[in-house]
Fold each of these.
Amino acid sequence: MDALVSPDVFPAARRYAYLNAASVALMPKMAADAALDWQEDLATRGTVHFDEEAEAKVFDDLRQAAAGLLGAQPDEIAGGSNASEALCSVAWALSPGADRNVVSARVDHPTTVYPWSRVARLTGCDVRLAPDKDGIIDPNELMGLIDDRTSAVCVSHVQYSTGQRLDLAALAEVAHSHGAILVVDATQSAGAVPIDVVAEDIDVLVASGYKWLCGPFGAAILFVRRDLHDKLEPGLVGWRSAEQVWDFRADRLEWAPSARRFEFGTMAYGCAIGLATATEYLLEISIERIHRYNLALTDRLVEGLAELGAQLVSLPVEDQQTSIVTVRFPGQDQGRVARRLNEEEVVVSPRIGAIRLSPHLYNTADDIDRALETLKEILKEDET
Ligand SMILES: Cc1ncc(COP(=O)(O)O)c(C=O)c1O
């Protein structure tokens, strides 16, 4: 199978078999350059090139790119620093009361659940977490927790530990039939899995930028469906939340009439530029193509792993349709295997007592074969 992208765009991919996008992806060179150039210019010239218009453009560009990614409109997007911050603001905006509940999953990422747990400590709402079997959620059990007292269903589109992908349209249908909204953490899917907020009927979506979107730390996107703008008062607020940002009127709080109300303060703007540039690059290739390519790499990986005796913790690739693969090698110290792989520059993560491998667009069939060859040697080491 041919490589999808030139290694010139991801220079580190020449050296490493970098199978760790579910932790932090490699950044395309033009995105890293854009972020660093901005940072350098600010550090050395302050506001000389960075006036109010330039500041507005940073966010306009990010909103435009994120809207293209999600099938949304730019006024439904806010830029932010990370998914945790965005979800906190949304959870406080919703603040379900004592007689209400929020539905999520026990195995989900803490960032997806904690904001609701924090709100629950104040309001007394119930946070219902669907159980799992060795990291895998039964979607019917999850949907079975939703009732007429549910204010929000908040889950990761793709689970960080196993790569399990949830059917968002099905979840939205059940949530909406009970008057609840669907809040999606797409940190493990945006950039690798096609998302259409209209077709899938998603109400709110957050995604940090440094995983599958190939952006830097310090930038994230938040989608809020237009009909919710007036209903949600962000939990995090600052001068940039206002309709007239440059008025500086502290004696009144008039929210921006769009998702922009969820932007609130000065942030690492260079990171937003880096994320917008990376997102535009992915869109030029097409997320659908990246998705298909990543799944082909994953098929090859899973086949090779099975030959080496690995037990799949993830669902089979054809069921979960993501390129996060979590495996265990029976009788082996999984932490040691993960550590040895990293020492050999096959970059992976230890997770939930297993090993998580997550190829992305810059990987090639050679990377997969190298990872498998290296694993074969490492597994032998333990026997000696
Ligand atoms: C599903 C999910 N949400 C959120 C995060 C992290 O959020 P933040 O970027 O706010 O640190 C991760 C990181 O692993 C994740 O996998």
Amino acid sequence: MKEDVAKVRTFAIISHGGAGKTSLAEAMIFDSGATTRLGKVDESSSVLDFEPEEIKRKATISSSVYSFAWKKQPFTLIDTPGDFNFIAETKTSMQGGDSVVVLADAVDGVRVQTEKVWEFANEFEQPKIIFISKMDRERADFAKAVEAVQNVFGKSCVPLQIPIGAAESFKGVVDILSGKAYVYGGDDSGKFDMKEMPSELADMANRYKEAIVEQVAESNDELLEKYLEAGELSPEEIQGALRASVISGKLIPIACGSGVGNKGIQPLLDLIADCMPSPLDRGAIKGRTTKGDAEVERQPDPEAPFSSLVIKTVSDPYAGRLSILRIYSGTLTPDSTVLNSNKSAKERFGQLLRLKGKSQEPIESAGPGDIVAVAKLKETVTLDTLCSERDPIVYPAIELLPAIYSLAVEPKSKGDEEKIFSSLSRLMEEDLTLRLQRNDETREMILSGMGEIHIEAVVDKLRRKFGVEVNLKLPRVSYKETIKGKTRVQGKYKKQSGGRGQYGDCTIEIEALPRGEGFQFYDKIVGGVIPKQYIPAVEKGIAEALQEGPLAGYPTVDFKVDLVDGSYHTVDSSEMAFKIAGSMAFKKGIMEAKPTLLEPVMEMEITVPDDAMGDIIGDLNSRRGRVLGMETKGNKQIVKAQTPLSEVLKYAPDLRSMTAGRGMFTMKFSHYEEVPGPLQEKIVELAKKEKEEKEK
Ligand SMILES: Nc1nc2c(ncn2[C@@H]2O[C@H](COP(=O)(O)OP(=O)(O)O)[C@@H](O)[C@H]2O)c(=O)[nH]1
Ligand SMILES: [Mg+2]
């Protein structure tokens, strides 16, 4: 029923890593009575951070969903990763919620990553509540944290709850509008007594109360008039307008407490019930027809046609694929067939599952605002729309974050390549930023993601789920060889002692071509000095030899060969002999025609805060980069540059440290350019050494 949808609260918990999201979520779940023990990240007893990779790192890598009831209202929380490496997962899963709880740390304040996820919430137009976490920690300072929050996110962030004490003397919170104090004991049981507000907090509470009343009064002309006339508003008027102000984003309430200490959690849950939107408040969801030619929308109504978005996929080698979907409209029941409108595919499933962190329980129906899971869909991947067959709709896909850090993966045991490929493909179903490519030139498998920790976590999963062990290293740069001059050389292969002899002899002119021209071969033989049937063999000999150039073993490009002269032997000549002669002439010719090395140059677009510009440009110069242009976008600068690939293999972590995490970049291949002399010598030297190693 529609009235039931009004009670639904589905929200994501977001912030930088380590601010206490998972601990807060655990306390919410425990206080609701859904668990009998308070899960702790530090004791590996979290029901949300349950994957071995998360336990090992004591950090959330993958979003978890938990549905519980708070005072008979259906609540679903999405605990998200805060670390930059897993930010793509955060963004995708945030789409499952209607609002967000943003954490700011009472000691550390607001970190850059929190600003990033805040932007995602803005992109999805999700109302926010801020929770100042870790009030029980040494040096916790509420006023300072509020100031930090307001500096970064503006003055519309106003405390609705303030702490009683701080650090070891932190006892609970006061709800400003009601003036009630929640006073907790020394343990983490979550038990509290309701008391009157301690008198020493009255001043602070009054100050904040005025700020709240002013903010909510301004949200509505009628209310503002009344407030200006009467100088105050009734609690009902405030409450009604408060809810509207929070949902419209005009006011962002600040609450506080301690997740690990389980203090201040119930008033936060009440605040979510009172002020955060239900799917009804969020209104109709816009999508498009399957042809994409018209806009359609769905009301968050259980009676409307069913529609949902897949926000996450869990890939398990034994249990198969689990698709986690947020329902926008209609009602879903077990044993149903739905349409994947992105793939025009019908999908059938059996059980309908509600998520409880690491476990699931079968349910009989689910409606708007619910996040549920179904198993073993065949074609569905994350971000696909699943909907009613009769009323198809496609929800727009969000912009994904590009993979910016690449490493080469190689099997620890030979022959595992195929297995690595298929297992990684499975993991890519779970992880949309992960990219796997084969570089044919360097013959490496390249795995790309957001950063080192991201890729390491993937490798851990590969081992645990699929039993494959791999090594990681920086990718090789695919250099190429070419020439700058021209020359005429002879290649002669002659073996005429004992048995059947071999005889091939060719003279070629070899000459440089412009970039991108590859290898060209011209037959300029006159008078049959080389018989017709052997001429393709000469070309083939060169074409094969150029794969491993004579300078440093890289493919040779951008040159032409004129076959101008030669000789043959009626008995001893063969295709093989002319192939060898061609290859000999090529190797000699290249080395005589001013050989040189080419390297791939990348086109980069780097977005950085104003104050980091100088450092970024200086750094690009030291990487042999060429700045092509700069552009201002808000308080950020966009730098366009071309830089050799070999200089930016680790640009992702370097840019992060140069900009304290505020910088972003994308890059793609642009063209090949000559490697400067001194560097060339090093590369040639290294290639020689490697070759010797191999031949040992
Ligand atoms: N003292 C104290 N420590 C906390 C609190 N919340 C989290 N922590 C600790 O901070 C660390 C990170 O917590 P976690 O919940 O995993 O943060 P997340 O990365 O935001 O999910 C862990 O060591 C927690 O024990 C809190 O309210 N008080
Ligand atoms: Mg976490």
